[in-house]
Amino acid sequence: MSWRWERLSDCVERRYVSGERITVAQFRIREGCVVQRHSHPNEQITVVLQGVLEFDVGGRRFTASAGDVVVIPPGVEHEVRAVTDAVVIDTFAPPRRDWAGGGDAYLRR
Q: What sign does the dihedral 107-37-74-55 (CA atoms) show?
C-alpha cells in the first residue's frame, strides 16, 4: 500500500491506497500512452480529473474528458489511450490485492 508516486513505465505513474473494501488510485498518464487490454474481478469507477482519454470497454469505444466518470464492470476487458496528458482517480471494489503481488504487468509495458 502506497501513497507515493511510483513510475510504472515511461508514460504511467501511480499512487494508491487500499482499505478493507476499496482501493483508490491516482494515475498520471502521458499523451499517446496505451494501457493494454486487460480485465480484473474488481468493479472500477474512473473519474477523469484532467485530459482526454479514449476508452474501449467491452468493445464499446468512447472518449472521456475532465469531469467525466466511467464505470467498468467486473470481468469486462478494457483498454485506454491517452489523447492528451491525463490525470485520473480510479476506485476498485473489492481492493486490488493483486497489485502488491505483481499483478500489474499490463501497466508496466
A: positive
pLDDT in tens, 64-90: 999 999 999 999 999 999 999 999 999
Q: SS3 for 107?
A: helix
- What pLDDT shows up at residue 73? 98
Task: Give dist(CA 19, CA 62) in Å, integer.
Answer: 31
Report the mean per-residue pLDDT for the chain: 95
Query: Between the CA of residue 7 and those of 24, 46, 49, 75, 90, what are the distances in Å?
Result: 17, 20, 19, 26, 17
Q: Of 25, 17, 11, 24, give the one whose Cα is nearest residue 80.
A: 11
